[in-house]
Specification:
heterodimer; A: alpha/beta; Four Helix Bundle (Hemerythrin (Met), subunit A); Rossmann fold; 434 Repressor (Amino-terminal Domain); 3 domains; eight-stranded mixed beta sheet; 20 helices; B: about 375 residues; 13 helices; 10 strands; signal recognition particle (chain A); GTP binding (chain A); GTPase activity (chain A); EC 3.6.5.4 (chain A); nucleotide-binding (chain A)
């Protein structure tokens, strides 16, 4: 969500990098760009001012170290300020996710504007608490306004394999809340998630209603659900809900979109309530912990390596990967291995998504998008390999003209594409052989350059 | 693959919805439970969570009074008498207060210098107008008024003029060509902007005009989205086209619905779609497929592609419009939730960047609160001017 902002800041600091020393004018210019970038990213105006002032104070007062470039120093100051504003840094208590430290049943109240994603988030939280925390969760919808809202939560409860409160038509939200708490006490539930109807912050009658619900159930957590696409109004919304019901945490939804998500900064600043969770997709398990440092790094285009590693660890089959590595070391890499590798890459999602997490790639992200990276090529290559006989896969040298024609027809591709794959595989095998020859030490010394054909003879030192 | 589709769960899309008056909650002040034009409030007593499973096969049979009573919001047109402008103003009151206050504070006794202009630009940005739109307006000020002593009124009036000038070309109502029989409106947008509610309101308005309307429940993904539209079809008496099963192909459903609609001679067919983030190319491709497939029935369809935008959305709205326009050739915009504290200033930036018509704005929860977009009123309302 922060890619666009990173590219903006990168532009600023690129200019700084090109200069030798950092004058005060440079800092001022950089900060003006930072301010515009933050504003364009929907960070609220007062928050932007605070942040920029903080950065200026620190940047100007600081001695220039010899070991780092002035630009890097500014980046660090901006990064620290962002992390702090997002709830990290020295003041970070390290607590993440939902606080359940209260006598069961623990009530959790979900509030927010219409269409912010309260009901889906309720389902996601229920699934998370059931699977990760092994809690017995009861879902209850207090939304008597939107047609079929209660039915929606009931369906979600089934998918998350938790119980939902039976629907009794005609009850008021307060009655439903009381019934939910009653059922939870009698049937020994650990957590009750109360999903309320969406309401405008200026709708006093409805805001009063949710305050009543809060009074009646005394929720341990009151989570404000906010869309990452929210503009400057995020401040008003957060303020209104915080004043009326006392928000204990914020859930940002739709961070899988391309909104810059400045609302996260604004709301954290206004309410002081931590951002607890991020909704990152349409599936019920797409709920992530919020990490201020990671997000701030992403803002600055430093990449999100931690997330990438975690994603890889979660999707790639460890055993399979080890087997593959062992075979590669022995130089026995076959097309079959290549196919399984393709499959694993496919599991990690789009190439753009993976590349976007790498440091420095944020900058060329636009070019990547323009280049329109064709991820279907992975699928097509897998199809080509599937159309080969096991013998062909083990010994690709067998494949001559007529076999190529058959494979192309079988996989719905062309002979050219089959050729391309074989050539690519050939290059890969050659590279692996060279890697084995170099050995682990050689690889460390020569780096990747030693692997590339033509560059192998140009060893550093 | 099919199993996958089933188990796949769509992000919920809680949408802005009118509240039926029969519910025993303290209603908002603008929604008194009874109205002078209600001959029989009976049908309104159906609880919303129990949708009628059988859709009305022939919509023409429903007498207008029933249709009126069936839609609670229609019962009381009295508060709306003041016109959409006063409602919009009331809705914007809080949001404009901030904008007006700071503009007032800025200019009451001040010379229009660089610092003042910069503050003005920031103020506009804070109203979600966007950096580019704000700059253009501020530059207009710089040219004509730089260094002069200016009063608060002057600044506001000129600001409103500037904004109205940007908005005037895009204030165009959606025109239906009923000769198409039916005129197909594809309603698209990201999750939670109010697509289903907008369809319900449009459908109600068309029914009141005596047109035969049909709803296609194309959101086959989100839990209970079909039931939500079903309730609206029952309330408005529109012909309802549900999918055969959850997770069914939206394109196939639209194809069948359009075929039937042609046979039955419907005037307008409103096609709901699942909310989708514009950066998910697979989902956007799915939307293109819906269009490709309905073109097999009618080459000219869809006659309108309405993109529903949430007024609380910030600068990302620009990206949304850009991508949806590229992918499905959006013909017009609907801006919802303008009755909240959000200013919807992004509309100004959108008008500058794309010039797409803004067909309707949602300023409340009743069907008639879905209004044609009026540039001058919007601009003056935004600044708290009469």
């Amino acid at each position: 969500m922060f890619e666009a902002l990173s590219s903006k800041l990168n532009g600023v600091f690129d200019r700084l990098r090109r200069r030798g020393a950092l004058s005060e004018a440079d800092v001022t210019e950089a900060l003006r760009e930072v301010r515009v970038a933050l504003l364009e990213a929907d960070v609220a105006l007062p928050v932007v001012r605070d942040l920029v002032n903080k950065v200026r104070e620190r940047a100007v007062g600081q001695e220039v170290l010899r070991s780092v470039s002035p630009a890097q120093q500014v980046i660090k100051v901006v990064n620290d300020a962002l992390v702090e504003a997002l709830g990290g840094g020295a003041s970070d208590d390290g607590k993440r996710g939902i606080d359940l430290n209260a006598p069961a049943p623990v009530p959790i109240l979900m509030v927010g504007l219409q269409g912010s994603g309260k009901t889906t988030t309720s389902g996601k939280i229920a699934l998370r608490l059931r699977t990760r925390e092994k809690k017995k969760v009861l879902l209850a919808s207090l939304d008597v306004h939107r047609p079929a809202a209660q039915l929606q939560l009931q369906t979600l409860a089934q998918q998350a394999e938790v119980t939902s409160l039976p629907i009794v038509p005609g009850q008021t939200p307060i009655q439903i809340a009381a019934r939910a708490m009653d059922v939870a006490r009698r049937e020994l539930y650990d957590v009750v998630v109360l999903d309320t109807a969406g309401r405008l912050a200026i709708d006093e009658a409805l805001m009063e209603e949710v305050a009543q619900v809060k009074l009646a159930t005394n929720p341990h957590e009151t989570l404000l659900v906010v869309d990452a696409m929210t503009g400057q109004d995020a401040v008003n919304t957060a303020k209104a809900f915080h004043e009326k019901v006392g928000v204990t945490g914020i859930v940002m939804t739709r961070i899988d979109g391309d909104a810059r998500g400045g609302a996260a900064l604004s709301m954290r600043a206004v309410t002081g309530a931590p951002i607890k969770l991020l909704g990152a997709g349409e599936k019920l398990d797409a709920l992530e912990d919020f990490h201020p440092d990671r997000i701030a790094s992403r803002i600055l285009g430093m990449g999100d390596i931690v997330s990438l590693v975690e994603k890889a660890a979660a999707t790639i089959d460890q055993d399979e990967a080890e087997k593959l590595a062992a075979r590669m070391q022995k130089g026995q890499f076959t097309l079959e291995d290549y196919a399984s590798q393709l499959k694993q890459i496919g599991k990690m999602g789009s190439l753009q998504g993976i590349l976007g997490m790498l440091p420095g790639v944020g900058k060329i992200k636009q070019q990547l998008n323009d280049a329109n990276l064709d991820t279907s090529i992975l699928k097509r290559q897998a199809a080509i390999i599937s159309s080969m006989t096991p013998r062909e896969r083990r010994a690709p040298d067998l494949i001559k003209a007529s076999r190529k024609k058959r494979i192309a027809a079988g996989s719905g591709t062309s002979v050219q594409e089959v050729n391309k794959l074989l050539k690519q595989f050939d290059d890969m095998s050659a590279m692996m052989k060279r890697m084995n020859k170099l050995g682990q030490k050689g690889l460390m010394r020569g780096g990747l350059a030693a692997l590339l054909p033509g560059a192998g003879n140009r060893r550093p030192f | 693959m099919l199993k996958n589709l089933f188990s796949r769960f769509r992000g919920a899309e809680p949408e802005e919805q009118p509240r039926p008056p029969e519910l025993p909650i303290p209603g908002p002040p603008e929604a008194p439970p009874t109205g002078p034009e209600t001959p029989e409030p009976g049908p309104a007593e159906t609880p919303p969570s129990v949708p009628e499973p059988t859709p009305e096969p022939i919509p023409v049979e429903i007498p207008p009074p029933t249709a009126l009573a069936a839609d609670p919001p229609a019962e009381d047109p009295a508060p709306a008498k003041g016109g959409w402008f006063s409602r919009l103003k009331a809705g914007l009151a809080r949001s404009t207060a901030k904008l007006t206050d700071s503009v007032t504070g800025l200019f009451t006794k001040r010379k229009l210098d660089d610092a003042a202009l910069e503050e003005l630009e920031e103020t506009l940005i804070a109203a979600d107008l966007g950096v580019a739109a704000s700059r253009r307006i501020v530059e207009g000020f710089r040219r004509t008024r730089f260094g002069k002593e200016v009063s608060d009124e002057e600044v506001k009036a000129t600001l409103a003029e500037e904004i109205a000038a940007i908005l005037a070309p895009v204030a165009q109502p959606m025109t239906l060509d009923t000769a198409r029989a039916p005129h197909v409106v594809l309603v698209v947008g990201v999750n939670g902007t109010g697509k289903t509610t907008t369809i319900a309101k449009l459908g109600k308005q068309y029914r009141d005009q005596g047109l035969k309307a049909g709803f296609v429940a194309g959101d086959t993904f989100r839990a209970a989205a079909v039931e939500q539209l079903q309730v609206w079809a029952d309330r408005t008496g529109a012909r309802f086209f549900p999918p055969a099963k959850p997770g069914a192909d939206a394109a196939g459903l639209a194809f069948d619905a359009l075929t039937t609609a042609k046979q039955e001679g419907l005037d307008v067919l409103l096609v709901d779609t699942a909310g989708r983030l514009h950066n998910k190319s697979a989902l956007m491709e799915e939307l293109r497929k819906v269009i490709r497939v309905i073109r097999r029935v009618d080459e000219t369809a869809p006659h309108s592609v309405l993109l529903v935008l949430d007024a609380t959305t910030g600068q990302n709205a620009v990206q949304q419009v850009k991508v949806f326009k590229e992918m499905v050739d959006v013909t017009g915009l609907a801006v919802t939730k303008l009755d909240g504290s959000a200013k919807g200033g992004i509309v100004v930036a959108l008008a500058q960047d794309f010039g797409l018509p803004v067909h309707v704005v949602g300023v409340g929860e009743k069907a008639e609160d879905l209004r044609p977009f009026e540039a001058r009123d919007f601009a003056r309302g935004l600044l708290g001017l009469d």
